[in-house]
């Protein structure tokens, strides 16, 4: 997998001082004023030191963990977003199978939000050790960003770390919100019941298990059924265990499953004093979110790039993004606004909060255009269109691939199916195959490069670039 070297430059290393100051240093990010080298977002206190330190440590641990092929190194700096009334700390595991987010809410902090925006924060090994030693319920002083930046030139030593950043990490942020944004609350456990349940889970390293509500807890089931919850690799929830002593409810979100359903992702939210820690698990321990393909159909639309540009101009690091409100402001249908939000998600600009049932705005300082060009199914679909390999006859499209053909069928409700092995194996659970993507684009009027246009190097229609440029950051 291709990686991009991302250099994190910090004024100094983050630290936790003996006096109880948690000094989180920031790298390059984006604020309401635009790109900033070392943004300063917050100065104040977190409500209780021990749960706050333990929850931050959990997010940092996820960033350094690999649950599939754990012998490989994983190192990422968590992302922090200030939405004004809350701070969000986010990370992905190195295998992209676990997404972690800590939301520090308005009633969990007492201080001043100095700006809105997103940046990376330095969480080094010394800081992780210090966070693990924090005890007591006194408030924890927190600084997000270097204090006194305006009066200091920082000509001295700058802490830099060069970290391989796989493009799949960026795609994972897009896939998580696309896969889980339609999930509903499936179970709610009190603190004591949650502790008993999590500690009693079998430590199945690779298997997929199913859970069903049973009174005040969850129990294992033999197979999926309506109301069931999928959990793959229960050991991936281990970062919740040290936090159970602080009380709070455990809420589990998932899709409405049918009998015999395939494995799906699950969202686990633990309420803490003034905070929420969310862990999202991929459907199987061997599957990372970057390969799920849930965003592909939305990204291949003719208008999605232009719509994303329109919608992005209306975002202002909002803690809650309301598609209905955006649709009215942008004069667009709600379904196109949702597709535009998915497009913005591929650039790391949109996430989803199940507790609020709403999207939120963030910015990630990574090259989304590079990630777009590395998506193999979108690239293959573009090649099929350019080769004029798609022919529709009524409700059936014939897609010629080298020496054989695949057929894409359109059902009465517009859903597309394919005769290829990919579709037979996954039935759309990991996004559309390249044949469906190409057939759908062809049905909407995209035709690729014609012979006449190939002489001049021009495409027949500017809209045909929608697939090729699917994840370009809207600016």
TrEMBL record:
GO terms for molecular function: zinc ion binding. Residues 397-444 form the SWIM-type domain. It comes from the Bacteria. Keywords: Metal-binding, Zinc, Zinc-finger. It holds the Pfam family SWIM. The keyword Zinc-finger applies. Residues 442-475 are annotated as: Disordered. Residues 442-461 have a biased composition (Basic and acidic residues). This is Zinc finger SWIM domain protein. It comes from Catenulispora acidiphila (strain DSM 44928 / JCM 14897 / NBRC 102108 / NRRL B-24433 / ID139908).
């Amino acid at each position: 997998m291709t990686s991009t070297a991302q250099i994190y430059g910090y004024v100094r290393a983050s630290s936790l001082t003996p006096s109880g100051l948690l000094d989180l240093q920031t790298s390059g990010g984006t604020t309401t004023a635009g790109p900033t080298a070392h943004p300063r977002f917050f100065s104040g206190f977190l409500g209780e030191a021990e749960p706050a330190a333990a929850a931050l440590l959990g997010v940092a641990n996820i960033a350094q963990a690999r649950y599939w092929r754990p012998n490989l190194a994983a190192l990422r700096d968590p992302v922090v977003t200030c939405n004004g009334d809350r701070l969000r700390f986010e990370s992905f595991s190195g295998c992209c199978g676990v997404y972690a987010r800590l939301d520090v809410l308005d009633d969990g902090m007492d201080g001043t939000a100095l700006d809105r925006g997103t940046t990376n924060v330095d969480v080094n090994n010394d800081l992780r050790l210090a966070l693990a030693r924090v005890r007591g319920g006194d408030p924890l002083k927190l600084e997000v960003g270097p204090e006194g930046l305006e009066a200091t030139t920082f000509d001295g030593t700058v802490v830099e770390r060069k970290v391989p950043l796989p493009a799949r990490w960026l795609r994972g942020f897009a896939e998580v919100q696309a896969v889980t944004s339609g999930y509903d609350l499936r179970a709610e456990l009190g603190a004591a019941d949650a502790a008993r349940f999590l500690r009693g889970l079998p430590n199945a390293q690779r298997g997929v298990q199913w859970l069903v509500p049973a009174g005040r807890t969850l129990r294992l089931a033999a197979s999926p059924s309506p109301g069931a919850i999928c959990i793959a690799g229960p050991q991936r929830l281990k970062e919740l265990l040290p936090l159970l002593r602080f009380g709070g409810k455990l809420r589990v979100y998932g899709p409405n499953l049918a009998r015999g359903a395939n494995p799906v992702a699950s969202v686990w939210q633990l309420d803490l004093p003034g905070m929420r820690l969310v862990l999202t698990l991929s459907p199987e321990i061997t599957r990372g979110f970057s390969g799920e393909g849930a965003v592909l159909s939305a990204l291949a639309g003719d208008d999605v790039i232009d719509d994303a540009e329109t919608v992005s101009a209306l975002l202002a690091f909002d803690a809650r993004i309301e598609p209905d409100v955006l649709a009215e402001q942008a004069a667009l249908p709600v379904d196109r606004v949702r597709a535009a939000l998915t497009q913005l998600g591929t650039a790391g600009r949109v996430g989803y909060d199940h507790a609020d049932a709403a999207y939120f705005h963030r910015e990630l300082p990574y090259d989304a255009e590079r990630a777009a060009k590395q998506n193999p199914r979108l690239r293959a679909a573009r090649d099929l269109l350019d080769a004029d390999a798609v022919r529709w006859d009524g409700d059936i499209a014939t897609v010629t691939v080298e020496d054989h053909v695949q057929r894409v069928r359109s059902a009465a409700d517009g859903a597309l199916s394919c005769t290829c092995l990919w579709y037979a194996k996954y039935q759309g659970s990991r996004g559309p195959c390249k044949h469906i993507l190409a057939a759908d684009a062809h049905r909407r009027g995209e035709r690729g490069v014609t012979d006449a246009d190939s002489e001049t190097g021009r495409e027949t229609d500017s809209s045909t670039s929608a697939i090729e440029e699917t994840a370009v950051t809207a600016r």
